[in-house]
Amino acid sequence: MGRVTQRRxxxxxxxDGSPSALEYxxxxxxxxxxxxxPLEIRLGRLSYSVTMRTPGDDFDLVAGFLVSEGVIWAPEQxxxxxxxxxxxxxxxxxxxxxxAQLRPDVPLPDTGRNVYTSSSCGICxxxxxxxxxxxxxxxxxxxxxAVDAEVLASLPELLRASQRLFDDTGGVHAAGLFRIExxxxxxxxxxxxxxxxxxxVDKVVGWALREGLLPLAGTVLQVSGRASFELVQKASLxxxxxxxxxxxxxxxAVELAEANGLTLAGFSRGTSFNVYAGVDRxxxxxxxxxx
Length: 291
Prior knowledge:
The chain is α/β, with parallel strands linked by helices. Helix content is 23%, strand content 29%. The longest helix has 14 residues, at 197-210.
């Protein structure tokens, strides 16, 4: 996987009380880590933001980030993406700077980003809280999507089965975009992994933009972590009608989902889940008669 993972020597402590653990409580081994590096995003020659991410699918990340910022919403608005020159202390190309060239009629953002955005926060660099509530060109409110409860409950397992980087490292988030088919089943359209949960979502949205699929009507976005305000906003800006998370949502995430007409599910663990907004899109399981 190149720079996506890195091997490091570690000291593993085994305290299970077994005879071998008593004789050799500390063992030397190699562990595989998910790489985390900065990515500078430029609009033309203007430095727009720096985010910490796992290298890979960087063009998708930048495209999705620009959708999430409300800068673009159609593929033709993004003229080109390219890596800029950049080398580490050993003279090796880092591929840590991406320049996005926008169509001339696309206005540059009038709200600045501070220099740094961590892998755990998608809006930490925003100038003001008012700038966070961005208006979307796509509204999920009118989306007629309906999902069987059993199908929705199965998505975390389907997502986990495709998480190759997590298998290697145990240290990344995942976002999976599922299409709900006419027969009621779900098919995985795109999966992305990253040390930052918001990066994983941006990579999915950026992939969809570059494929000309926005708005993402009739889809479900399944994420491996919690459902924050920023993830609900990213889903709304991409026209995704349903966001499902393995962990909990925040209060502001629920409020935004309700305001945008988005269905929000949390604590999805295979046999149960909670719906916090937009329950009408979730079809109840058919009760079976007892013998």
